[in-house]
């Protein structure tokens, strides 16, 4: 007879519900959850109950593209009050193919080394572990090194 126990207490929790999908198995990819307007076609992040451009309520939520390009980046040397990660870090504005601009921390490169049009990919990472062992997850964008693109299967 086998007995399965579900681990209680510790787990992984998004920093805010409804922002992104956490990969649930091997091969699953994370994505940001956005809103697309069915009337004018614009997309938004975070999700909205109505279109910010034409105010239509005909909107649908769905996954946004995982890859985008850097529109601007800043090296942050003094952490905001609730930030628990390492300093310095880079904070970027990433343009996704849907036309959405997403503010997010950047990773995978020196904080001062970012350039316009650098290609990045969404990652979900723990940013803090609570006293009970629960990991708080947040989204970041990671550098896609030109020399490494197309070689992502190498471990
Ligand atoms: Zn609209």
Describe this structure in words.
- The protein has 155 residues and is mainly β.
- The chain has one domain.
- The chain contains no helices and 10 strands.
- The chain has strands at 12-14, 20-21, 31-37, 43-44, 59-63, 67-76, 89-95, 101-107, 119-129, 135-143.
- The strands form 2 sheets. It has a 5-stranded mixed β-barrel. Strands 2, 3, 4 and 5 form a 4-stranded antiparallel beta sheet that branches.
- Strand 7 (89-95) and strand 8 form a beta hairpin.
- Residues 1-9 and 149-155 have low confidence and may be disordered.
- The site of zinc ion (ZN) has 8 residues, from loops.
Summary keywords:
disordered N terminus; 155 residues; mainly beta; five-stranded mixed barrel; disordered C terminus; binds zinc ion; globular; four-stranded antiparallel β-sheet
How helical, in percent, are the residues? under 10%
Number of domains: 1
Report the biggest beta sheet as strand number plus sense, adding barrel if it closes.
5 strands, mixed, barrel
Q: Order of strands across the widest beta sheet?
A: 6-7-8-10-9
Strand content: 35-45%
Distance between the termini: 37 Å
Bound molecules: zinc ion
Q: Order of helices and strands, N to C? A: EEEEEEEEEE
| Radius of gyration, taken over Cα atoms and rounded to an integer in Å | 18 Å
Provide the low-confidence segments as ranges: 1-9, 149-155
Total helices: the number is: 0
Structural class, by secondary structure, is mainly beta
β-strand number: 10
The residue-averaged pLDDT reads 87
Which descriptor suits the 3D outline?
globular
